[in-house]
Amino acid sequence: MDNIIYILFVSISVPIMLMTLLVEKKSRFPMMFVLVGIFVSVFASEVNGLLSQLLPMDRYQITVVVTPVSEELLKAAPILYYALVVSDKKEKLFTASMATGIGFAVLENAFYLLNDPGFGMLRAVVRAFGAGLMHGMCTLLIGVGISFVKKKRKLFAVGTFGLLSTAIVYHGIYNILIQSEYSIAGALLPIATYIPFVVWRIKYKKFQPVEGKK
Asked: Rounded to two decimals, what is the model's pTM?
């Protein structure tokens, strides 16, 4: 049988891709980055598989030490490219980064649940609100941060390194907690960081000047 992750990739990405061609331009942008996230997820699975073969580590060590680094760097790459080459507008980067992280999580969650012998609704809910939000929040951190540090040349390199490091540490902490006796805390961590950000976004949008008005 073919590798299940490629079957999932085709099954999920092709319908989204076809729909992207039909929706309005404003809706097309986030859908394109969801597709980017799905593609990055496939690439990351190959990279992680290769690293697990090359490094003398068990599965737990790989998930705690290796995958947070490889996955956050790979997810950040398209966001950094977009910010540096296309646009560094905050709204665009907010959307692009969150969509990339969620796209990544969609494919990863489907893969893990299909390969999990304890598959069930509870696992699905935990993966959706745990790993799903975790990937979105880590990439969102990069998008939000890069919109600020890009405009400060002296801080750009250090700021980008700091953003990547924070995302990697956050990811690593989640992986440690979710595999420990404190798995509930691990599942709640992304929600606990997501809610304050939503509140901040609502306030941020509220005080933004309406287009066409002075």
From this structure: 0.88
